[in-house]
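User: I've been trying to design a sequence by hand for this structure and keep getting stuck. Would you show me what you'd pick, starting by listing the structure so we're on the same page?

Assistant: Good idea, let's start from the same input. This is the structure you sent:
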């Protein structure tokens, strides 16, 4: 195992390959583990289960290859991917080359039901600072240009925009600065905004509409707008590979689980994950496995308690089995691998994620 790797102090990588591995003939699959927790809550998203499942799958495949050297031809990369909750660690690792030689990537996430797939929204962060002219608010306000007016107009504009958005789009915004004292026209004011959308093109379209609102507010108030996107990398929507996902479902059925199909969970319950950034670069799956009673919300104390339960331990073992089987199938079944790639290409193929929002 190597650590640190790919520019992150808490990332790690380990590699397993068959004796006859040839990068020109054989495939590589990446198995991912997350392990970051939430401040004040702990593992309210169950990343400890993700970590254990990924490690279990990798060790199971290593044991298989040790006992049966001809079990598969190919390579497995096991990656520890930190900072999912905060800084899009997988995107940083991808930019540093972590997935350059992989043909597919797989992981599993704990949840309140077993489901093969659900919607995961792309997310971007925007900060806008309005800069006006300060003046005495009573004696000569006409000499000022009110930055807070622009922030208030922008906030209202974002609220009105929601009526014209697709149901899966999200806008969250706060005014985090708006002046120091009421008898001065505020010279600066700022908003902190998050936006989310179900697909990469709609996330880009929403970004443009947000900028129009922010610039329009500046024009109305007669101030300048300094708009900055993504202080840490954005997270992209997940594009799940259904062909590969079906192998996950079959593996889970073998051990007594029966994952619900994609579409069971409403898109209105969707959150975000940096696995989306990887799924737009190469085929991938991000299924969910039950560790908590139905209806238990992610990022809650109740889910953190469930992540320490015997049910979570069982899910980690079942998840490890599922990931190992999917990896083995992908490495050994040429027809499956071809179908996986064909589906990926039909869905749009590899996306230049890092520069996607430059235009």
């Amino acid at each position: 195992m190597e650590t640190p790797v790919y520019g992150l102090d808490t990332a790690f990588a380990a590699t397993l390959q068959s004796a006859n591995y040839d990068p020109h003939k054989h495939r590589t699959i990446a198995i991912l583990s997350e392990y970051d927790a939430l401040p004040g809550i702990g593992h309210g998203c169950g990343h400890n289960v993700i970590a254990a499942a990924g490690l279990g799958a990798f060790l199971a495949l290593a044991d298989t290859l040790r006992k049966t050297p001809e079990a598969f031809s190919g390579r497995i990369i096991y990656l520890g991917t930190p900072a999912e909750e905060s800084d899009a660690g997988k995107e940083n690792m991808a930019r540093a080359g972590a997935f350059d030689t992989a043909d597919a990537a797989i992981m599993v996430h704990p949840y309140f039901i077993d489901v093969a797939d659900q919607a995961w929204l792309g997310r971007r962060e925007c900060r806008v600072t309005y800069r006006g002219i300060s003046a005495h608010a009573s004696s000569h306000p006409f000499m000022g240009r009110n930055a807070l007016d622009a922030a208030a107009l922008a906030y209202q504009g974002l609220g009105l925009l929601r009526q014209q958005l697709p149901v899966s789009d999200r806008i969250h915004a706060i005014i985090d600065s708006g002046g120091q004292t009421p008898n001065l026209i505020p010279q600066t004011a700022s908003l902190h905004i998050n936006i989310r959308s179900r697909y990469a093109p709609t996330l880009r379209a929403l970004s443009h509409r947000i900028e129009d609102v922010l610039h329009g507010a500046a024009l109305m108030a007669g101030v300048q707008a300094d708009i900055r996107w993504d202080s840490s990398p954005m997270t992209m929507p997940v594009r799940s590979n259904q062909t590969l996902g079906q192998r996950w479902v079959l593996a889970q059925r073998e051990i007594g689980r029966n994952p619900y199909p994609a579409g069971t969970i409403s898109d209105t319950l969707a959150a975000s994950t940096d696995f989306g950034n990887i799924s737009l670069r190469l085929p991938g799956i991000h299924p969910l496995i039950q560790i908590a009673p139905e209806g238990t919300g992610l990022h809650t104390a109740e889910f953190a308690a469930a992540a320490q339960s015997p049910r979570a331990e069982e899910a980690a073992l079942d998840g490890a089995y599922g990931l190992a089987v999917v990896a083995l199938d992908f490495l050994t079944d040429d027809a499956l691998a071809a179908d996986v790639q064909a589906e990926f290409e039909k869905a749009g193929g590899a996306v230049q994620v890092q520069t996607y929002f430059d235009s």
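That's my pick for every position. To get oriented when you compare it with your attempt: The radius of gyration is 23 Å. The chain has a mean pLDDT of 96.
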